Amino acid sequence: MLDAEQWQQLLQGFLEEANDLLREAEDCLLVLERSPTDSEAINALFRSVHTLKGSAGIFSLEPLVALAHHLENRLMQVRDGECALDDALTSLMLQCMDELNVMVRSIDPHTATLAPHTPRQAELLAALEAFTSSAPHAAQGPAVWQLALRLDAELLRNGFDPCAFIRYLARLGDILAVDTLTDALPALEQMDPEQCYLGFDITLSTEASRETLEEVFSLADGFYHLTLTCQTAPDDAPATASLRPATQTLAPTPASDEPRVVHTASSLVKVAAHKLDELINLVGELVISTAGAHMQAMQTGDSECIERVQAVHQHVEQIRERALKLRMVEIGETFNRFHRVVRDVSLTLNKQIQLHLHGGDTELDKTLTDRIADPLIHLVRNAIDHGIESAEERLAVGKPAQGNLSLSAGHDSGMIVLEIQDDGRGLNTARIREKAIARGMLDADSLLPDSDIHMLIFEAGFSTAEQVSNLSGRGVGMDVVRSAIDELRGTIEIESEPGKGCIFRIRLPLTLAIIDGFLVGAGADRFVIPLDMVTECMEAPATINGPLNLRGKPLPCIDLTTHFALGVPTTSRRNIVVVSQARQQVGLIVDRLLGELQTVIKPLGQLFRHLNGISGSTILGSGQVALILDIASLFRDLQQRNDTKHRPSAAIPNLSGEQTCNGSAI
Amino acid sequence: MTAMQASFGSLAEAQCIQHLSFRVRQAGYALPIDLVREIIEYDEVTRVPMMPDYIHGVINLRGNVVPVLDLAARFGLSRTEPDKRTCIVITELTLEDASQRLGLVVDAVDAVHDIDTRQVLPPPPFGARIRADFIAGMAQQEQGFLIILNLLQVLSTQDLLDLAQVRAAD
């Protein structure tokens, strides 16, 4: 028997499996909604629900089994073409999925018990039942089936009794004949009483479908081989084509598809997330200690030692990369949830929307996928609610009635780029401007470029929706979206074209744990700049007033020592690190450039959460703590400081001189 | 008063609670010992820009980055100039469901006292050396009163938030 711990593990496994299965089932259902004839999807859906029912049965979760069973029955009819999967049925099935989800969540993880039927479940069961009765029954009389059942020698040892199956068959119809095949039976003295030597040829008259009959044995999956032959099959039975001739000898079970599937599944290992985190933390420590060892080795100047340390360093580097890859998951799973979101939202708003997904195989850190899901959902809802017009409006401006929403993911220079694109009306720049002025966020006479005005929608308490719907328009949200993205060290930008649509582009780092950094010194302090933000370094001119001329473009510069009030610079020969993000560029004036390093990010904690311009800290090889600059928030901070001082007058590039003096000194 | 309730409430049965006492500018203060993780020497502290004076910065505590707060400066006195006796008391408390470590700069660490919870007096409404809301209670000792600190209030991030907003408005 299973002991308590094994039972617990089994249950834990079931709960995880159930969640996966339900998600899979929901995805399939949504695929079916778009292409109702997709037989692969219906089969996958059926399998999911069936497996769920089977697993739930082990734990005697009666209400769950009941609902899954009814759902399965309906699906069977859909699969057999006895019932069309229309919108109403899809909606009902989605509701059932939701209820199943609720049930799975309410399973007590310790006792594996589930509360008895709720009225909601009864309602759904009744609705499913109603569908059954109203569905057009395929008028067919009982068919006569020949079941050639060959049993595996291990069947009995695995606790299955072939009689039980035959008895169950009798409930589905009339058993006309049972022929027991005994030719494999050895002599009595050689017989192993625990082994199964029998086979059966059964003639059954029943109205049940081929699948129902197959289902009867599915519990003993892998321990039997069944050949079904329908003698008076209805003409439209689609499965008859694939019939195999019944074998009359007890051939050993041929390798079916099932074991192969099982095999692929077993090559995956499920690991608890916290174990991975521990590993990655340790790898982080290893990176730090290696950096320390490397520094020490350099100081001794012993070339042998340096070489060895370098070798260790390379290996550590490889381990780090592999370790980080362990946490990478495809974003496709997150994307697939949006079928449901889009479906529900567009139904509520009565809009027709086609969702397109691209780049679902892009991999990113599990934490990122988990934490980006909510902001994405928000943006998608917004796009549907505010962006895409109603069908009439669309037709009036000559667009197809169906709106398009696309979600895509991809890599771009070491970052993950997620795009939410719609072909709606685009952002209403004038309205945003009006609203911003009304709210005092903007001066009435200020001349901001459109792209800057668009960014105002991310300010707290900003909403331009005329009507507050239960989806969006309350002005909480876009600022939450931005802060969520900030927290992930990402950025968001908007590209909007009136009447054509709008793109929200989110850039995220590949991982949250370790980054490549560039170490600089300012005063006595050291800072790490994320390396992917650094575009170039150069020597600073002796005096700087106003933006520099960087190959014909103005480059605003800020002095880190003065910006952070760190005291006086320690050197007169200073350097500029040019950092860029999205389309902005700033030169950071620092005292010393100290080179690249692997940076393990250590959060600074609650106390520093309101700190602008610094996102975290890291421990250098020497054991010192260095702060990591948060370029995105630094940019915003600069913008704010600038806005409060005077209106931003765009720096005028001076093509002849080295420096321009009429720009705003930041 | 939450800190006091947290530290005393559950221990109503046990009458005595061990407290660590330390000195800040000649005055004696104490903290329940279960909030204290360890005491370390004042060593290299990395300063964090744009923080109030009483935040000295962060230290590397065996691979963890821990913020360091100067109690004297927090109480409105001058910032501590570290000397040989200056210590950092590493405390740990739960803030918003996450355990947070924090170092407190003190001038010297004294001793561990058993303080009878029934003998702890409420803070005087005025006349104490520090803000009344920083005080969880007063414990009478031979040499005078020990002030038991309300650590949550001392660490209140609300103050920091206010500061950040003032800064933003500048």
TrEMBL record, chain B:
Q: Entry's Pfam families?
A: CheW
Domain of life, per lineage: Bacteria
Against SMART domains, the record matches this protein to: CheW
* Domain CheW-like, first and last residues per copy: 16-160
PROSITE patterns named in the record:
CHEW
In terms of InterPro entries, this protein maps to: CheW (IPR039315), CheW-like_dom_sf (IPR036061), CheW-lke_dom (IPR002545)
Protein name in the entry: Chemotaxis protein CheW
